[in-house]
Amino acid sequence: MNLYFNQIAAIVWKDFVTELKTRELLSAMFIFALLVILIFIFSINLSIVKASEVGPGVLWVAFLFAGTIGLNRSFMLEKENGCLMGLMLVPADRTTIYFGKLISNFIFLSIMELFILPLFMIFFNIDILEHLGPLLMVIFLGTLGFCALGTLLSSLSSNLKTREIMLPILLYPLLIPIVIGVVRMTGQLLEGVPLLDMMKWVGLTASFDIIYIGVSIMTIDHILEE
Amino acid sequence: MESDENAMEVRQLRKSFGVLKAVDGIDFELKQGEFLTVFGPNGAGKTTLIKILSGLTQPTSGTAKIAGFDVTEGNVEMRKEIGVISHATALYADLTPLENLMFFARMHGLSQPEEKALKVIGEVGLSQRRNDRVRTFSRGMLQRLSIARAILHDPAILFLDEPFTGLDIHASNVLKEHLKRLHNRRRTILMTTHDISCGLEMCDRVALQVQGKFAFLENIADVNRDKFESMYFDAVRDNQFVMEIGSQ
Q1: Quick check: B99 contacting A, CB < 8 Å?
Q2: Rounded to the nearest 10 degrees, how much is the dihedral formed by the CA atoms of A25, A30, A36, A41?
Q3: B104 to chain A: closest CA residue
Q4: What tens digit of pLDDT does each residue of B92-117 get?
Q5: Which of the residues A18, A170, A180, B240 has an alpha carbon 20 to 30 A from that of A69?
Q6: What's the topology of domain B6-91+156-247?
Q7: Cβ separation of A18 and B84 shorter than 8 Å?
Q8: Is B217 helix (H, G, I), strand (E, B) or coil?
Q9: What pLDDT score was predicted for residue A179?
């Protein structure tokens, strides 16, 4: 069991060292998310619409679209020079590859989100600090579901020539339950509704997170094989 | 692996991609410590054969046992026994050789990954460049590092897919010496190549794969080099003719 976790940790370590050297992923995701928020802030008249009504949608569009850039890059790195073949040849359960990439994607996306949140607060003039704990919980659930499904589908689409197009086409429809859940919860949190009053949404999102991780564990072996 | 058991046992192995038969009923066995060189024209199915034997792809039919493990079962234990050098280096371009090998050492569950990585980097003569990014390496250096990755866990069986491709004479000689050392250490080796002199010089057995089949398989002691060369060139020429007809 120790070896299993060491192998997952090794994949995460390798992705981090690569990102520290290239700084390609985080900077691309951050700039894209920032641009999405800027485009919306200039196109929405906040004196007419309430920021707490449109803000959650804008925030999650920024997170998910920027995250897709990260997911596309994630398995591209493994395809370069046949590194995925190298990983397939090591004596490791194939789920270690999935969990290693899932954790890397989750951490990179979370770092980007932590930088975007204060900017969102400033641009939309919303005080998120008083709901910060529950909001981070909601972001955690949404990001986990996005990365769980996204990592699986990016491993699938990495074998396709049209991978940049195929990933969003496959990913976004399947993400709808999670997106609805997190956007609703974020909106209600910004309206001052306590998280305890939306346990149905929490349950729905958490259930999809578990389903996506379960499906990934069952299918990753077949997906990674040629 | 017991010393008297076959390192490889391949029976009626087949792999088809639609109507194309990449591997078509191959039979052979290799004892531990034997070196088999497989020659063949482009598209003969040599890479597919190595992919099947290393568990990267499933055969359509037939059986193959590597170190006693059935390749179709995707056994983790089997992967401990094999090392593969293919066209792709399987190295992360933005990491250094030390980081790359430390990563693979950890994936193999080796104790003291840094020490092991430094040792094999030294063996392939890349100690001076151990902290440079792999992206800056020449083809020859990449190939040497690829060998280091493949032998890091000291596997009993090595698969080499055209390892001399793109190497200059010096890098080719370094690789040849390294393969001889591995052979002397009784590693079982299956190598595909187009380089007649290198291939025949090192092996114990030689095979010629044409259109998915082993058209020839003999011990090197029984092979007339001139006859084999002419047979190989005929096979390459005929294959070229078939490919030209096919493309028309």
Answers
A1: yes
A2: 180
A3: A90
A4: 999 999 999 999 999 999 999 999 99
A5: A180
A6: Rossmann fold (3.40.50)
A7: no
A8: strand
A9: 96
B56 contacts A89? CB cut-off 8 A:
yes
Compute the nearest-CA separation of A80 from chain B (Å).
Answer: 8
Type of residue numbered A130: E
* CA dist., res. A96 & res. A83, Å (int): 15
ipTM of the complex: 0.89
Q: Which site among A5, A81, A87, A101 would you substitute to test the B interface, given the most B Cβ atoms closer than 10 Å to its Cβ?
A: A81
pLDDT grade, residue A96 (50/70/90)?
very high
Domain count, chain A: 1
Q: How many CB atoms lie within 10 A of CB A160?
A: 12
How much of chain B, in percent, has pLDDT values that exceed 70?
95
Q: pLDDT band for position A118 (50/70/90)?
A: very high
Side chain identity, residue B196: I
Q: Count residue pairs from A and B with Cβ separation < 8 A.
A: 83
Place of tokens 């430094």: B118
Q: What is the pTM of this model?
A: 0.89
Backbone angles phi, psi at B3, to 5 degrees: -70, -25
Number of helices (H) and strands (E), helices first, in chain B?
A: 8, 10
Q: Compute the nearest-CA separation of A63 from chain B (Å).
A: 27
Query: What is the span of the domain harbouring residue A143?
Result: 2-224
Strand partners, B210: B213
